[in-house]
Design a protein that fits this description.
624 residues, alpha+beta, D-Maltodextrin-Binding Protein, domain 2, Dipeptide-binding Protein, domain 3, 3 domains, 5-stranded mixed β-sheet, 18 helices, 26 strands
Amino acid sequence: MRAAGGAIVAPAVAAIGSAPVPRASAEERSWRHGTAVFGELKYPAGFVHFDYVNPAAPKGGTARQSVAGTYDNFNPVIAGLKGQLATGTELMFETLLTPSLDEEAAEYGLIAEAVSFPADRSSVSYRLRAEARWHDGRPITPQDVIFSFDAFKTNSPQVSAYYRRVTKAERTGEREVTFTFDRAGIRELPQIVGELTVLPKHWFEAAGKSGHRRDAAATTLEVPIGSGPYRVKSFEPGHSIVYERIADYWGKNLNVRAGRDNFDTLRFDYFRDTTVEFEAFKADQFDWHYESAAKVWATGYDFPAAQDKRVVKEEFPIRNAGIMQGFAFNIRRHKFRDPRLRRAFNLALDFESINSELFYGQYTRIASYFEDTELASSGLPQGLELEILEAVRREVPPEVFTTPYASPVGGTAPLVRNNLREATRLLEAAGYGVRNLKLVETKSGQPLTAEFLLPDPSFERFVLFYAESLKRLGIGVTVRSVDDVQYENRLRQWDFDIVVETWPESLTPGNELSDYFGTRAADTPGSRNLVGIRNAAVDALIARVIDAQSRDELIAAARALDRVLLWHYYVVPQWTYDKARTARWDRFAKPDRMPEFGQPAFPTIWWWDAARAAKTAGTRPAAH
């Protein structure tokens, strides 16, 4: 499950005629108020609210946040494929189900009041709430759900891959829609479909301001009609967007919405430069800041408002996801196809020195694609994990079975020299040699070069540090920082050597793995398979994760996949920090009991605190 130049995927077959397709009677079916991938739901039918919210939280006030980059689009259908989607569009649109933040993989009814599926999970049905409404007052219908599914599956490569197991969407009752799957037994599918963002069919099929019918496959700055707790109040393309809370929002009394969406106004301001962004925070131009720079976290909060506690620094534990972040190779390019060469790049990264000299020792080296979760592999494979790997033994590196994976360790001159010596040996084995102080491919005489394509100039600090080691091996290195639009366009066209990429993973990974690492996604523009992995063993292990019928099987399959990905050296793993570093102007309050997963959940479950805000009234008005 999610923590989201090729042929367009054909749309799903949908029966949306006026007469519903016959189905088993309600008496013969079991309807549920939610669903869990494994085990039982924590909250029973009719529960009042989630434990981690304050149902009495006051409504009002403004929360201002920052966003890096720009935007030129309000259409979520083509997010990641065309244009830059405006932050906060998820505030306007609801989904069929919504997750609980204190369960590993559980969702409860939102637009859908109930969900039903057979024991083999070969299909799933959702019964829509009678009160569910669009902002123009029209009811949300099964036709809206089917239209949304077809729009995403036809136009969004990432979502199409996510929903590829769904073969049919059809109206099966006045307020009922059913999805049929291509095979039974995939436990996460009812939740995956439940994550569908539902769009207003009548709005997209009507004429827009241009006089022509709107196009779900095109970017737009015409604000669509939504169904969520907020709507756009004002915006300046690429610079800012303001959302206002809807007082008569149809879902405000639902148990899954109690105690959340408490601010009257949510504002997002865009910045192209992280230094300017931080200066704006210090000047009280916005309220909440996620700090990504270790150096700034260690040394940058010595300004007056932080010293007198008007600005509060707080770290929140990250328990809901694992992550791989690394230097990702584009193995579509001939020079990066040999894993020995990619291993040599890993040997050249002196993480220990980078961590000490640039990051104030705050980070740990990533050692898994599921870092900081129980899904991460370690030691040698045993038990069910070994059994799963035996099925692909002939197709994976032998080290998977004989050697625990570990990245090289540096930090001292002798260790660094040894690593570079081993890197040189691997490069020679891969067909490279040094000629006139340059590393060249011996057959062609072509120099080995690598361009690091970056979306953020702040990355240059550690990339340039890394580049010096690569240059010692004779590799020609260039570092290029580009604007957000150019970066996305080059990624979509696979026009890069090496990028810094992250792959977040939920505690119950599934279909998204196909988009991250699957063969079908390797040539699909907009997919997350930036590396270009086409590997039968990886595909088989992804299928085993998706098909897992128990938590134990899921863990074993994920660990097996982890090992195989690591031993192919598709990335040079970077570093991680297991907490979210945040700073805020002290104007807000949060529940006494925060959710186990998904912290800090700002601004979703926080609220405006008038008493705290009064202390900073000299810098900003108490309410907007």
